[in-house]
Amino acid sequence: MNSFTFYSPTKVIFGKDAEMHAAREIKAFGGTRVMVVYGGGSVVKSGLLQKITKQLEDNQIPYTTLGGVKPNPLLSLAREGIRQALEFEVDFILAVGGGSVIDTAKAIAHGVANPDIDIWKFWSREAVVEKSLPVGVVLTLSAAGSETSDSAVITNDEIRSKRGLSTEFNRPRFALMNPELTYTLPRYQIMCGIVDIMMHTMERYFSPELGNDLTDEIAESLLRVMIKNGPIALENPTDYHAMSEIMWCGSLSHNGLTGLGGKGDFATHQLGHELSAMFDVAHGASLSAVWDSWARYCFNVNPERFAQFGRKVWGISEGSAEAIGKAAIERTEAFFASVGAPTCFSELGIGVQPDEVVRELADRCVYFGQRTIGSFRVLGRDDVYQIYAMANR
Fold first, then answer.
1. Domain spanning 187-391 has what CATH number?
2. Which of 38, 147, 282, 351 could form a disulfide with 137 if both were Cys (CB 3.0 to 4.6 A apart)?
């Protein structure tokens, strides 16, 4: 086992009616004036938002609300939230939703705590987060794992740039997780969640730093649980067992546990971010659209790693390491297709793109030559272009 530092301070309350602990937990973590951040009308129509605000009212906790968060959360709305939160003198942010809502809440928390710094400077690495407001979460979508992670992603809608930020200040204080709150999700959102959860684990699993047996076993078992329960959830979104397993997998996939002792790759995430920024496609769908192209392009770096993935995750035992590894890529691609996830540009809904667009995607992904991506195989501009070109079908 390699050396590592593990820090995962989020208090998790998991199970039926977990959302009813919101006011109590806000007070326990020092909140006295709250901004409730949410997305579209689903939390309103379901009555969840009213449940939360009634708790605040019953506990004499003043609050303001900010709705309208969309997938691929926008910097402009986060800035508006900061303005509103400062005006209301907020000292706690409560996210009621999925990853986009949670990431918006994190951005607002950073902005309120640092009113003299434009928050995009944190995501563009021009400034470092050194303080933030506490954030709590009522989770309604199993996907991003943002409820326990140190990361947050924001899209700058002025320059069409989507970037992630990792900092311990992104860790929520608590996450209230009731699988029943995910029962009304559309099939497409469930599918995107399945992909995102698996990819958060696979991005850590395909690491250049090996020899972490227990970490590998945790990652492999999580993937097997997702492969088993994902199709059940799609068939019956009110299956409590399947939805509860997926919800907990989502949190563990992105709190750092599945990559301890290794170095994450996350090239597929970077490839997907550019697709989301340019075409406003769903995050999970952008990942499955490029993963098999990334895997085939990087396969020769370590065929045995793909073979272990094939043996432990997919149960493939016949053949050489190379044959098992390649079969594992095919099985993964087929699984994504079976749950309705795209595996190329045309299935993503953006069509086959002209070469100049593919080259622009590659340029943007490497910040026009200012960075490389990935660690399993370090990828420069030409590598990124080749992967996009393979997915452009």
1. 1.20.1090.10
2. 147
